[in-house]
Amino acid sequence: MKLIFEKSAAGHRCAILPACDVEEYALSAELTREVAPKLPELNEQEISRHYTELNKRVHGVNCGFYPLGSCTMKYNPRIDEETAALPGFTQVHPLAPAHTVEGCKEALDTAKAYLCEITGMDDMTFQPAAGAHGEFTGVMLIKQYHDARGDSKRRKIIVPDSAHGTNPATAAMCGYDVVNIASAPNGCVDLEALKAVLGEDTAGLMLTNPNTVGIFDENILEITRLVHEAGGLCYYDGANLNAVMGVVRPGDMGFDCIHLNLHKTFATPHGGGGPGSGAVGCKAALAPYLPKADGIRVKSFHGNFLVVIKALTYLLTLGKEGVPEAAKNAVLNANYLQSKIKGTFTPAFDRICMHEFVLDLSNFKKETGVSALDVAKSLIDYGMHPPTMYFPLIVHEALMLEPTETESRETLDQAAEVFRKLFELAKTDPEYMHNAPHNAQIGRPDEVRAARTPVLRYSF
202 or 270: which carries more pLDDT confidence? Predict the structure, then answer.
């Protein structure tokens, strides 16, 4: 497929403006370009065809099953988009006088109240632009708390080995030393390993519960108690909140602050470059250090306002009863799909899971020569987006699946049948799977080169 710059033809355009009927104003020379910007020139039909062609090359949750583990690719109701597009929300300015945007302020306050109730937090900011940005903000709250008390010896953040990769990166960005602890055989935090690293230099613990292998840590109250007794604080990575929202609150588990991926849990769009929202909530002790629109900021003004409106619409649509029902259905779907697949591929932890589960294809690869990558690529030929591959790192040949609550039983049955077909195909024709996908626009790109030497600019 040609790039839009390659399709450009001089003189093509789609805007026909009437003759100017007012006096033209010429900007001074220092405010004008010496050379016109190199923008693609296409007519309206060419633009429409270009983006339609791009659309055909993309697999979204609106195209088929999308079990991308840990990413919660759930269906986003259209009403959320329609509400956020209302003129009263789109045609405001962040510097408008307060009395002219009372409705917008009420929407933000309502969203804060609902999300604080769901998470068990006392206060919240919507400034952070995405999940990782929210992580950074949350850990900075912990840092500010310790610094304000003159407790400068606390230089270590504890991160389990099953954590999201952004967790240790965030802690390091905030100036902390990262202490990695191994998981116990059951996939949860090893209490003895945790006790061994806790001390006067502990600033905090970063954790998500349910964790990355889809298990709710039954020792969570003991974990947070141990950290607090050592003088540290507990940070909750909200990536997996979709499994427990409205059922159990991180604040009641003993966590002091949390970031929320509104694009994961509260049905605002996920992917595509954003914008997102990594709302950060905290207990009262950390509230003085929250960024504010009229104080210290991590992003301009109130953050990505319309993303919050979409999340608020989702909450209002579900209501108090619908929020926990969505979480329970997410857990039900994950356990249903795991049980349907279990007769073929092997779960890494053969037990009741939460919203997601991990398959361990290590023995399968030894027996057939077919890897987790081969299985993932083969799923594309069946109209399914591959699950998350080779994550978490504690499971070799890992495939992590999260079906979410918005998938039907029929879809899950079809997905399980595809897995069964691939399980048998690996025994009879492994070479076919080594070369999959066979029907996709792009087969197997050089992912290492793409990550190390990406081409991000068009060279004329």
Answer: 202
Q: How many CB atoms lie within 10 A of CB 46?
A: 16
Q: How far apart are the first and last CA of the chain?
A: 17
128-173 pLDDT, tens digit each: 999 999 999 999 999 999 999 999 999 999 999 988 889 999 999 9
79 conformational bin, left if phi > 0, alpha if psi -120 to 50, beta if neither: alpha
| 184 and 256 assigned to the same domain | yes
**If you average pLDDT over residues 343-355, what whole number do you get?**
95
Q: Evaluate the CA torsion angle 44, 46, 52, 54 in order and state its sign.
A: negative
pLDDT band at 293 (very low <50, low <70, confident <90, very high): confident
Last residue of one domain, picked from the residues 273, 292, 317: 317
Report the SS3 class of residue 276: coil
* 191 and 97 together in one domain: yes
In a domain, 70, yes or no: no
Residue 170, token pair as written in the block:
């965030």
The two tokens of residue 434 are: 């080594």
Convert the pLDDT of each residue in 51-76 to its tens digit. Answer: 999 988 888 888 999 999 998 999 98
What's the pTM? 0.91
CATH number at residue 431: 3.90.1150.10
Domain span including residue 136: 78-317
State the DSSP code for 354. S
Domain count of the chain? 3
Pairs from 371-374 (Cβ < 8 Å, separation ≥ 24)? 371/397, 372/397, 372/398, 372/399, 374/426, 374/430, 374/433, 374/434, 374/436
> What does the alpha-carbon distance between residue 252 and residue 298 come to, in Å, rounded to a whole number?
27
- Helix (H, G, I), strand (E, B), or coil: what is residue 439? coil
